[in-house]
Amino acid sequence: METHKARRKRLGRRSALVGGGVAVAIGALIAPLVEAPAASAAPRADEVRHPVDHVDPLIGSAGGGNTYPGANLPFGMIAWSPTSTTGDQTNTAAANGYSYDTTRVRGFSLTHVNGAGCHPGAAGDVPIMPFVGEVDSSPTADTKDQKYAATFSHDNEKAEPGHYRVGLDSGAAADLAVSERAGVADFSFPRDAPARLLFRTSNSLNGSENAHIEIDAQRHKVTGWVLTGAFCGRRANGGENNRKTYYRLYFSASFDRAFSTVGTWENDRLSPGATTADGGEGYLTGADRAGRGSGGYVGFDTTRDDDVRMRLGISYVSLAGAEANLRAEIAPRASVADVASAGRAAWDRRLRAIRVSGGSEPRRTAFYTALYHALQQPNLISDTDGRYPGMDGTPHRVERGQTAQYSNFSGWDQYRAQVQLLALLQPRVAGDFAQSLFNFARQNGGVWDRWVHISGATHVMTGDPSAATLATFYATGVRNFDAKGAFDSLYRQATVPHPDSLSDKGCPGQCEGQRPGLAQYLESGYAAQDACHCWGGAAETLEDSVADDALARWARLLGRGKEADELGARGGYWRNVFNPGATGTAGYSQARNRDGSWVTPFDPASDRGFAQGSAATYTWMVPQDVQGLADAMGGRQKAAARLDGFFHKPDGSWSVRGGDPLRYDPTNEPGIHAPWLYNALGQPWKTQETVRQIVANVYGTGPKGLPGNDDLGTMSAWYVFAALGLYPQAPGRAEALLTGPLFPRAVVAPAGSRRALTIDAPDASDTDFYVHAVRVNGKLHDTSWLDGSFVRQGGSLSFDLADRPDTTWATDPGRLPH
After folding, report:
1. pLDDT tens across 775-811, in order?
2. Which one of 12, 92, 389, 685 has the lowest number of neighbouring Cβ atoms within 10 Å?
3. Which residues pair with 185 in a beta bridge?
4. Is 514 in a helix, a strand, or coil?
5. Cα–Cα distance measured from residue 738 to residue 651, given in angstroms and rounded to the nearest whole number
6. DSSP string computed for 650-693
7. How far apart are CA 281 and CA 291, in angstroms?
8. 205, 198 in Cβ contact below 8 A?
9. Dist. CA 349–CA 406, nearest whole Å
């Protein structure tokens, strides 16, 4: 066996070899907005050459991951994927329309959001269903999806990046491929039965206010729109506030042949031969919505040719925009295979931003699928001409220097990991996204919504995630947005009370105030549980403390010293909801009333005063001041011992799968940074073993390969960082915490950049994950964290790993993360 000393010597030699210059190679653009990653040192023989070969879109499609397997492109507008049914036309088998465990579909919808937690989630607009048989009754009247839906077998299903195919038990099949705003489909039918294609225009996942369809038999076209919204509209905690419309999706579909028959329906009335129909479903569910809605159908003679080709474009601005998007992105005679090939290349180029070497095939599949999911959002909402729907209900054009307008911001989730990965790998997209959020805020009376869907402010969750997100982008080096204007706007939101801050409308889950109860918060230094107009006073305080600390750091970078000092002090308000005597034996974060009293009775397993998490979990949510939290707990040793109890049961066995409110929950966001806290507590070897325990036993391949809702790529981004051996230290900062990498080598080459990060860990294995030495650009590195300049500028990072912990590495009390 190689000695530890020999390993160190070899590590030094290797670091000298990989620390040289970085070359740049910009490949040809495959699709609009697809940037080429930078090239780096010569690849290893076992380097993954085509990451797209290792992606399985079905990962996360069961077990609550809420991913979808359909065709999409990185950050694309269209996401063409099945809508499943369990016998209720007003509901689906999973939050985003598809569940691997349910093999009956009622259509293939044009839009989806990855991993959202509300059920149904969002979008799922305009399901299009190939139907074998005569349409002799209204499909909307088929409220239990008994007639106009079809079963399938996974043996007849194939999901790949940018391409989805499935054969239905009815004999029909769908073969779908997409560009960013358009798609091509081949629908095949049996030759001895009627072939019909249903456009369920009103049947979005959450319902609709109205919908319209027009069939032009002479031009072989079907066009229309759906007026919808209502994200989280069925949610018990505040959902009623979101049963509202905020966007219209237009579509234009053209066919390669004449229609043999046409018809429409409105509610339970079928109109054979009709070419127009209107009508929405409402935003309720079950009997309150069943049997309502509209759509249309076209038929084909398939006796000689059983394959029907459809070309389709979409837009959130206009029908003309949908048709222009189609013309711009897909050639008139392009086949599904042509579009699928281009889409595959586009995905491969994006995924090559990280090139790993070594590792088993299951590990590669889990890794590249996680990266695939992390790069699905934000999503384009601007057309090829730059027009997009504003949050004020009117069309706008992208700002000068802005490439595209993006949306779908699950802020409370994404600000902890996904936005950091986006800034690292796709800085141009990150900057456009920052500008997009600022554009929305200006159109929304200066209010930055915490969960933006298309052009709608949904108010979902808590805190001020936009502040943390844009501060993170700026700290990481993203500059292609109006940073000064955005900071001024966010600072105003954080310091000047808005009338909505006193509203209880939508509470607790979708409170309107983006800084709820701000005047009281500034006066008391915490959000009072009995007067906060928020989901939970303790959670709001902790979230706002993180946001204010991030804003303070951004202010410092902008040279705004006064604001930096003011906001920096507010970053410490978490202390005002930490009760050192919460249980008599330990301190916890705890909600307080306006008069200063603690909300009682207190139970660390309870979520009273918190949002989707217990006091035991939220107590650790102080990433901006871990040393301060440790002091409040009685010192680093006591804090580390408590953290041990957070990840282990009393008998010492691991507890990292969730289900215990007193311990770590990998399925939701408030505690996902906790494994890395050991670095700041002077016990980094425990971070190394805890992260590896989660990576190896909680994540994996197969439909249940994600621990919970992917939450627009957040859980997937967590895995990507864990596999690289890096994790963002805190929002608003570029510093990274270290742990043992999963692969022997990884090259991180951000799109459009000359910089690259090379991560070498030649001994990485299932057993060798403990860090014994690290070199940065060839020099020994004795801390468990990296300065932000490494993330911004790139360089080489080399790990010496072993199968037993080194309890001396990176433990100097004066050199711990702060």
Report:
1. 999 999 999 999 999 999 999 999 999 999 999 999 9
2. 12
3. 176, 310
4. coil
5. 28
6. TTS-B--SS--TTS--TTSGGGTTGGGHHHHTT-HHHHHHHHHH
7. 8
8. no
9. 20
User: How many residues are recorded in the chain?
Assistant: 818
Q: Tokens 């607790």 appear where? A: 508
CA distance 191 to 286: 37
Peptide bond into 120 cis (omega under 30): yes
* Cβ(14)–Cβ(760) below 8 Å: yes
The tens digit of pLDDT for each residue in 123-142 reads: 999 999 999 999 999 999 99
With contact defined as beta carbons under 8 Å apart, do 522 and 507 qualify?
no
Phi, psi of 770 (to 5 degrees): -85, 135
Pairwise CA distance, residues 701 & 721, whole Å: 17
Mapping DSSP to helix (H, G, I), strand (E, B) and coil, where does residue 438 land? helix
Cα 435–chain centre separation: 18
Q: Over range 70-77, report the average pLDDT.
A: 98
Which distant-in-sequence residues (6+ apart) come within 8 Å of 155 by Cβ? none
At 491-514, the pLDDT tens digits run 999 999 999 999 999 999 999 999
- Closest CA relative to residue 776, chosen from 793, 763, 751: 793
Please write the tens of the pLDDT for every residue from 446-469.
999 999 999 999 999 999 999 999
Place of tokens 């020994």: 780
What integer pLDDT is reported at residue 13 of this predicted model?
A: 33
Supply the DSSP symbol for 112: -
**How far is 264 from 484, CA to CA, in rounded Å?**
52
- The rounded distance, in Å, linking the Cα atoms of 551 and 221 is 51
Show the tokens assigned to 88: 């209720």
Quote the CA–CA distance of 231 and 696 in Å, as a whole number. Answer: 34
DSSP 210: E
Name the one residue in this structure whose structure tokens are 């050639």. Answer: 331
pLDDT confidence tier of residue 41, bands split at 50, 70 and 90? low
pLDDT beyond 50 at 9: no
Structure tokens at 755: 């910089």
Which two structure tokens, joined as six digits, stand for 507?
């509470």
Task: State the SS3 of 621-644.
Answer: CCHHHHHHHHHHCCCHHHHHHHHH
Which tokens go with 592? 């307080």
Residue (of 194, 97, 92, 105) closest to 148 by Cα position: 105
SS3 category, 185: strand
Rounded to an integer, what distance in angstroms lies between the CA atom of residue 496 and that of residue 445? 13
Contact 572, 545 (CB under 8 A): yes
